[in-house]
Amino acid sequence: MEVVAGALTGFIVGLTGVGGGALMTPILLLIFGVAPTTAVGTDLWFAAITKIAATRIHHGHGLIDWQVVKRLWMGSLTFSVLTLIGLKWGPIHTGGIHFLKVAVAGAVLLTSVGMVFQTRLHGWGRRLRTANPDQFKAWQAPLTILAGALLGVLVTLTSVGAGALGVVFMAQLYPLRLTPSRLVATDIVHAIPLALFAGLGHLYIGHVNFVLLGYLLLGSIPAVMVGAMLSSRLPQTWLRGLLATVLLVVGIKLWLSAT
User: Fold this and answer.
1) Concatenated DSSP letters for 41-100?
2) What is the reported pLDDT for 255?
3) Residue of 85, 101, 118 whose CA lies nearest to 18
4) Of the candidates 52, 38, 73, which has an alpha carbon nearest to the alpha carbon of residue 10?
5) Predicted confidence (pLDDT) at residue 62 exceeds the cutoff of 70
6) C-alpha to C-alpha distance for 163 and 168, rounded to whole angstroms
7) Which letter does DSSP use for residue 20 in this model?
8) Which of 23-37, 52-66, 158-172, 189-203 shows the lowest mean pLDDT across its residues?
9) Do residues 121 and 171 make contact, with C-beta atoms less than 8 angstroms apart?
């Protein structure tokens, strides 16, 4: 079952670039009954390694906007460290386990809503960019760092948000600068080190199940490559809409199970 779950999630990641955390963490919690802390730590490594396997297919040369990536890292890696320190110094007990489940459910629901409204948010960002270009540019850098900080906390705490929410934030903050291909490449470059960085922290704390991770990767690595090869041939709007619906249902079920 773990291999099948890894393959299904890997295939979706390959198709859309989304789902490494938003799908796998709920699957580990709801279907396999994995402890929330172990689910998050294991999934961070699962998502990072799975996306690395797809990067060579998705990535185009010269598509990465390194200035945007560095701004995101300033916020995400810094706040990932702070979140990991909090997890290390304040071990999660019974009440914290409940909070973590609710946080994962909230992150999945937020990811779903972000995917649904991504086009509208991108249009709103475009209008702001063209109407007040100087003011918009003045706020771009600090808001990008702030977006990175939010992603750093969310990803480290729940393993959810690096892909879908990262794309939503960047599409709104850089509506003219980042074309769809540059947007995906830049998001992947930001997301992989963040997941690895947070994963190292969870590994140090002891939240990674290597046996489970091995089974998941056994399914996901070949599946993510197949999905990545098919991604350019299938309608992304339809795929992301379907995935957003699935995440909404999963998020509600996870929320109800945690409350």
Assistant:
1) HHHHHHHHHHHHHHHHHH--TT---HHHHHHHHHHHHHHHHHHHHHHHHS---HHHHHHH
2) 86
3) 118
4) 52
5) no
6) 9
7) T
8) 52-66
9) yes
How far apart CA 97 and CA 146 sit, in angstroms, is 27
Mean pLDDT of the chain: 84
Question: Which residues does 206 contact at the CB level (< 8 Å), separation at least 6?
Answer: none
Selection from 83, 74, 67, 89 nearest residue 193 by Cα: 74
> Rounded to two decimals, what is the model's pTM?
0.82
What is the pLDDT, as a whole number, of residue 74?
A: 96
**Domain of residue 104, residue span:** 2-258
Nearest to 3 by CA among 32, 40, 33: 32
Cα–Cα distance, 141 to 146 (Å, whole number) = 9
The count of structural domains within the chain is 1
Question: Which residue has 């002891």 as its token pair?
Answer: 206
Query: 125 or 85, which is more confident?
Result: 85
